[in-house]
Predict the structure.
Amino acid sequence: MFLRFLFQQAGVHVNNILYLGYGIVGTGVYLLLHLFLPLLKHLGKRYSYGLEQRLGLYDDYLLPEIQSQKRLWLHAASVGEVRAAVIVAEAFLQEIPGLSVVLTTTTEQGNKIAKNLFPDDIPCLMAPLDVPIVVARALQKIAPDVYVCLETELWPVMLSMLRKKGIAAALLNGRLSERSLGRYLYLKTFMSQLLQGFQWIATITKEDASRFSRLGAVSDRVQVCGNVKSAMGKNDIPGRRNRYRQILQVGVEKVFVCGSTHSGEEEQLIPVYQRFSLQRDLLWVIVPRHLERIKEVAELLLRAGLQFHYYIELKNGGKRTHPVVLVNTMGDLVDLYSAGDYNFCGGSLVKRGGHNILEAVQQERPVYYGPFMNDFRQEADLLESAGCGFPVIDADQLACLLQDHDQHQEKYKQACKQAKNLVLSGAEIVEKQINLVKDLFEKKRETGL
């Protein structure tokens, strides 16, 4: 408070000091990266993946001439946001004639998944560092009419420059946890000014909307729209299911998929599989969250006397002879959920906060998860109230629940029906958010800017 008083007496606004300091630090990082770029490139892609693009150096071939009258810059941080971006991008292209889309991601993993999921005519680039010289360079190169980011991408330089250049911006699928709000409130004045860069903020829940408003967002610009991730794109669910069940060579078995598992979970899930497999023919598909744990999980399975195939073998046409598949590829989890009958989402039997359970429900199947869902509490509440999300307190209860649903198919089929209804309602969520962006393009057309 004393420093704030001194700055005010000197005629210097604290927000300007914070922004200046942020810019100086960012510029220092930029200069170091630019200086050591040749060395990092020499060390290999592990150290330099997309670094030139992060510095705003987008080659012309990456951005073919986009002659359309309307250009959208869509930003998704990582894999989860990329999958949501696929859904909204499809809707944007259907609803806004003459639109071209450029996608950016923050992470290498997100960028690689985006290149697999998006059509070739949508450039998938690495996002620029939030540094004045870099953002200015990127805006000049991409030249968007409207900028849209997903969830909680609050970049001070980007939002400030968008405002200065008169480029409309929207935050879709906005979420803000109580914990994040508590941290941001220490900089409320600064954050309030930052949020003015958005013409629309579409939030997932009323609680998210309230938190953004408490942080200084203009209430009239905040709308509760729901979670885009509960929607589906144009993908053919039955077709995808058949395709991936063929890869897995599913016969009469039921398929038990355990996605995004962490250390300490596979040990608990092995007895669940063994117990469940005594009741019926069962194919168990394990998808560790991190590829570096593949060896660890393989050793666990072998110690338990379980022979398995690596998924890449089956994907390349190998014949399956074992009832366990260990997935050692990236980006296949959602597709494998579509092949599953009983889908468990990891990070929830151990204290990891859970993972995106909506990805499983999108396949019109129920999802099962443990008690530690702190990071996805809203999604869990939504699915549980809809009758297609099933929490368990431990692995023993999971085994009992799976066996109960398998023995009483009327319960399982009802849960599948509820999941399908939830997916259908997701289309309305997408429409609400698309309409906000259409409004920005319309206002731009009317003002001629």
